[in-house]
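User: My advisor, Dr. K., asked me to get a structural model of this assembly before our group meeting. I'm new to this, so sorry if the format is off. These are the inputs:
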Amino acid sequence: MKKIKVLIVSISFLCVMSCKKNEDAPSVDFATLKTTVLADFSSKVAVTIYLDLDNAATSLNTAIQNLNTNTTEANLTAAKTAWKNMRNFWEQSESFLFGPVEDNDYDPNMDTWPTDYVQLDSMLTSTNALSLADIQSATLSLRGYHPIEYIIFGNHGNRAAADITARQKIYMLSLSQDLANTCHALYLSWTSAPTNFAQQLTTAGVSSTVYAKKQEAYLAMVEAMIAICEEVGEGKMKEPFDAQNPAIVESPYSGNSTTDFKNNIVGVQNVYLCKYGSNSGKGLKDLVASKNLSLDNKLQNQITAAINSFDNITAYYEVAIINQKVQCQQTMAALATLKATLENELKPFIIQYIQD
Amino acid sequence: MKKLYIISSISLLVAFFTMCNKASMVDESAYDERLSGGSSTVFDATSKAFGHAFDGLNNRDAQVHELGDGAFGQTFVAAPALINSGLGPVFNNVSCISCHHNDGKGTPTAGFVNSSLLFRLSIPGTDVNGGPLAIPNFGGQLQDVAIFGKQAEVNMSISYTDIPFTYTSGETVTLRKPTYTVTNSYLPLPANYLISPRLAPPVFGLGLLQNIPEQTILSFVDKNDANNDGITGKANFVYNAHTHKTELGRFGLKASAPTLQIQVAGAYNQDMGITSYVFPKESSFGQSQSDNINDDPELADSILDATIFYTKTLAVPARRNVTSPYVIQGKQLFMQMNCSGCHKPNLQTGVDLNFAALNNQRIQPFTDLLLHDMGNDLADGRPDYLATGNEWRTAPLWGIGLFAKTNGTPFYLHDGRARTIEEAILWHGGEAQKSKGKYTQLSKADRTKLISFLQSL
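Assistant: The format is fine. Below is the predicted structure of the whole assembly, which you can bring to the meeting.
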């Protein structure tokens, strides 16, 4: 009998111990995960996208130089492709508009909208040298993507190589060089001194001078995801839609608006899943799934639904706001749903589970 | 038995009065210290912290706020244009957001695309409304940028001189004093011109400040320093160009704007060269470079109103680390040294039946919205209505702990000369001299506590 008692006690003890172990195991993983997710986001998503952007900017600059030297339709097409390719990376990176991209004004320096036709024309007709220095000191609407887009695409891509004037060529050379410089500086701001922002993010809550707590870094990521959903759903799409004014739509020359919007949300997916191109790592999804699988499912589904909804908008966006209203509204609704989940569920999740 | 009655009676009385006491005043500790902006305080300490709407706006209001948010970020272009038309011809920057980075404070440079510093201009004397006397061909503000083909009114050159400061305990800090030099003036300026540098301030919580009852602000005025704390405080009374009346000034670094409508429409007009129903004349009206295009007002009434509404409905970020002993002790020091004499911690907003978020809210802006003499070192020497050249409006301190987040590199004070909160404190003089003096006598540990408190705002 005594043996049985001992056995019962032993089994109970074992049960209790094993229970304890089961409770402990995930929390240890979660603690490691909190560090890994920041490191993986920095290296596998952010820095990689900025490197791709940097390279794409160099390619665009080369394509523009080729177009200048040899103004053929083939070279114009190559420049257009290079512009769209670069835009692809930039729009994805807009899902994490925090850190140097905002602190150092890289964003307005390269992506200010609308185009200032009056100033553009008066600059082109002037005797200004249109040198790199002139562009760097020019007002924001005369710099960056959109003046290049205007020169190489014309209205909805109808620009012919022969129509590009000599002055426009000088201007576009300086514009693309300026853009390449900005993108390179942006990449360096994440990878080297003095800012080395990737390191600031990775060491959040340890030695980072920007993020005293890991929670701050996570909230910066989540707030940026919320902000881009808002920017697309309540700004870029909604403003021209509500006003029924095609003139407000960004990127009309290349007809790239809807692709731009979609890439913004693909960017949200990159951040959430920590997946970009062939890179993948531990992402917010891993943190969420380890504590709240249904929230993870919900977020993944809503992100996918929002991304896919853009495919229903088949016309140019400035046309779609007039004749594909339902499709536009469906996408804006999908973005509002996603934004609400990020704001009302993901953000509280971070605050609850990441307190250091 | 008699004793029992007496004891019982006394106990009852004590209990009764204690209860009365409790019922008549709410213990300070009963309030949630984090709620800087009352019930609609927003919990976000990231770079986006200043950009949130009040929670619970109805659909229509949320839509107007969004419209205003969009307008706040719009880049203006030279007229004529299909959208955002009317920039300049002379201006300081191209959009609201260019100066108010992340709805916050900006960079103390002038004339560059990311510059947030502008210069008000006048000559001695007052205009018919008691305001600063504008200079012919320049107006009341220097526009240091121009659209292509026009000339900026001036270029501003900014240099700094290092001024070392040593605490009694031996530690040193280097302050920097700015010098502003006007160059390349498009026409000669009169010799007696006065300039006042102004760094774009944050734009959140302004609806709450607009709803502080006038009598509350005026109750802080202590003209003859009756309590002998060295602080007097003065209300600015200024001309409202829309109502054509003289009103209490609340906004702007010298409280020279009575309402958000005047502040926002004035910024459109003077900073960007955009005309509206409030200010229908170009900032360059009557000058040789004026565009003379018949397109005024350039801004749709609804867009101006939406932008005003946006600034009115931007929520205040919550305080952080309020339970940290360092922060708590820092706040005690702040009160003991009478920093709170001007930077009033708690104010109560008035009634606003349209907005629960503005209605009767207990807020912690850390300002009295009054003018104070800040000493010669901070003086601009340029009167602005009743504000003398030494006086500035008490800056609200809410959100200052987040400037590094919203702005990348933080800058403080009216011209952004201070790079740290410590430097900003050390620049205080005039009515703040006593408090500053006490601060400089603190031990290093106590100074750190005070800064920790300020960083929690």
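One thing worth pointing out at the meeting: The interface with chain A takes residues 43-48, 51, 66-67, 69-70, 73, 75, 77-84, 87, 94, 98, 101-102, 112-114, 145, 147-149, 404, 407-409 of chain B (CB under 8 Å).

User: Perfect, thanks a lot.
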